[in-house]
UniProtKB/TrEMBL annotation:
Active site: K105
Name the UniProt record assigns to this protein: Glutamate dehydrogenase
Keyword field contains Membrane: no
Domain Glutamate/phenylalanine/leucine/valine/L-tryptophan dehydrogenase C-terminal: 182-414
Site residues (Important for catalysis), renumbered to this chain: D145
GO molecular function: glutamate dehydrogenase (NAD+) activity; nucleotide binding
InterPro entries reported in the protein's UniProt record: Aminoacid_DH-like_N_sf (IPR046346), Glu/Leu/Phe/Val/Trp_DH (IPR006095), Glu/Leu/Phe/Val/Trp_DH_C (IPR006096), Glu/Leu/Phe/Val/Trp_DH_dimer (IPR006097), Glu_DH (IPR014362), NAD(P)-bd_dom_sf (IPR036291), NAD_bind_Glu_DH (IPR033922)
Family (UniProt): Belongs to the Glu/Leu/Phe/Val dehydrogenases family.
Biological processes per GO annotation: L-glutamate catabolic process
Keywords, sorted A to Z: NAD, Nucleotide-binding, Oxidoreductase
Species whose genome carries this gene: Manganibacter manganicus
Binding site for NAD(+): T189, N219
SMART domains, sorted: ELFV_dehydrog
Binding residue positions for substrate: K69, K93, S350
Top-level taxonomy: Bacteria, Pseudomonadati, Pseudomonadota, Alphaproteobacteria, Hyphomicrobiales
Length: 421
């Protein structure tokens, strides 16, 4: 099987989990295929008056446990297969966290950095127009992902409200606070991972000061850097799509964040503050205790897994470690805290946002942090115990944990009405 075939790779994790739990074959059959994937070509007017088209998708993978939920990605390499596998992971992620959602995901094949702000707004509104019959507050609820953000969610929420003729904030999460966004959604993905590492640190033998390398310095990467640094851990290397920098004594986070806010790569800080430029592909092998992949899929593969020095991997990205690399890391006793648990803080606070939108009453930040921490610790502990009892990796344990919830829901639904259009 080719290592980069995303859906096939993802399904091997389902097969592994199925060996450890007694589930009906019908359940596995249902989870092997996306329920629906819609593809459209969005046509927008560019600033120079010309028209340009972009491929876009929305996948609702499985809605047995509730409305489908998952982000929208803008990326030049986005494909239907990637959207489907991301939606598959959302299905399991929501089940891991016991959120009342199924899994979905969307994408536009575009490099948003090549568009003006006005073009980006037209594209985002066009996405919502094209998918407004699929999306809905009780049907399919998008959120931000790679190269999308609160501003884009705000435009989409506004477009949807115009289409349905009434304010409908619960249709999308990760919105600006002024449009019904939740406090705490901005750093939620990183914060969930941070609570998880803190909670399991002693069990993992990682309760000292850690040296941390972070691959990807966007939303998830920047926030995890700040959260870990605030506890005294040292960020020794970071990368982004433009390259990587390292400093054995610790990077200057303010300088890195200033470079990013000015629209530059982290590489522009090289040569100052003790920062040294390194090839981006070397980041995985940097000398550190904790490696945090926070960029894209398949970045740790059979070609570089043996070079890892870290003893712990916190997967803030979706699907950063291939199954082949998983085996290499397990043989080397490197613990991987898997994406469907480690980065689930984002969708958990999205769930809080949706609940607040529906009830029209908004919570304080302390309440959000406390609730997120409780859920991360509860599900993280359950998965840790399962991994110890069954002598399996944290990934397999997370899939077993999710699969048992999915199986219960699929069986409870019965078999006579599997397709409701
Ligand atoms: N934003 C969210 O709420 C959630 C995001 N995630 C996942 O976290 C990961 C990162 O997402 P965000 O931080 O939101 O995206 P972002 O768009 O804010 O940041 C992505 C970062 O990855 C970097 N990057 C891209 N290609 C790279 C490469 N080849 N090598 C190194 N860095 C590279 C970019 O330069 C950028 O710094 C993705 O896998 C996403 O699916 C998971 C759960 C929730
Ligand atoms: O916040 C959400 O609803 C989903 C975020 C997301 O796309 C993810 O967890 O990968």
């Amino acid at each position: 099987m080719p290592e980069d075939n995303l859906l096939d790779s993802a399904l091997t994790r389902l097969d592994d989990a199925a060996k450890h739990i007694n589930v009906d074959a019908d359940v596995i059959e249902k989870l092997k295929f996306p329920r629906e994937t819609t593809k459209v070509r969005l046509m927008i007017r560019m600033d120079d008056g010309s028209r340009k088209s972009f491929l876009a998708w929305r996948c609702r993978y499985d809605d047995t446990r509730g409305p489908t939920k998952g982000g929208i990605r803008y990326h030049p390499d986005a494909t239907a297969e990637e959207v489907e596998v991301l939606a598959f992971w959302m299905t399991f992620k929501c089940a891991v966290m016991n959120l009342p959602y199924g899994g979905g995901k969307g994408a536009v094949q575009v490099d948003p950095r090549t568009l003006s702000k006005a073009e980006l707004e037209r594209l985002s509104r066009a996405y919502m127009q094209a998918f407004s019959r699929i999306i809905g507050p009780d049907r399919d609820i998008p959120a931000p992902d790679v190269y999308t953000n609160a501003m884009i969610m705000g435009w989409m929420a506004d477009e949807y409200s115009q289409i349905v003729g009434q304010a409908s904030p619960a249709v999308i999460t990760g919105k600006p606070i002024a449009l019904g966004g939740s406090l705490g959604r901005g750093d939620a993905t990183a914060r969930g991972g941070y609570y998880l590492v803190r909670h399991l640190a002693r069990d993992l033998g990682m309760d000292g000061r850690l040296r941390v390398a972070i691959q990807g310095f966007g939303n998830a990467g920047q926030y995890i850097a700040s959260l870990l640094a605030s506890d005294g851990h040292k960020i020794v290397a970071v990368s982004d799509s433009g390259g990587a920098v390292q400093a054995a004594e610790g990077l200057d986070l303010e300088a890195l964040q200033a470079a990013k806010s000015d629209g530059h790569s982290v590489v522009v800080t090289a040569g100052k503050n003790g920062h040294e430029a390194i090839p981006a592909e070397d980041l995985v092998g940097v000398d550190c205790d904790l490696l945090v992949p926070a960029a894209l899929e398949n970045m740790i593969h059979r070609g570089n897994a043996a070079s890892l020095k870290a003893r712990l991997v916190l997967e803030l990205a979706n699907g950063p470690v291939t199954p082949e690399a998983d085996d290499i890391l397990a043989q080397r006793n490197v613990v991987v805290l898997p994406d469907i648990l480690a980065n689930a803080g984002g969708v958990t606070v999205s769930y809080f946002e949706w609940v607040q939108n529906k009830q029209g009453y908004y919570w304080e930040i302390e309440e959000i942090h406390a609730k997120l921490r409780t859920i991360m610790e509860r599900e993280g502990r359950a998965i840790w115990k399962l991994a110890q009892e069954r002598d399996v990796t944290m990934r397999t344990a997370a899939y077993v944990h999710a699969l048992s919830r999915l199986a219960e829901a699929i069986e409870a639904h019965g078999t006579q009405a599997d397709f409701i259009s």
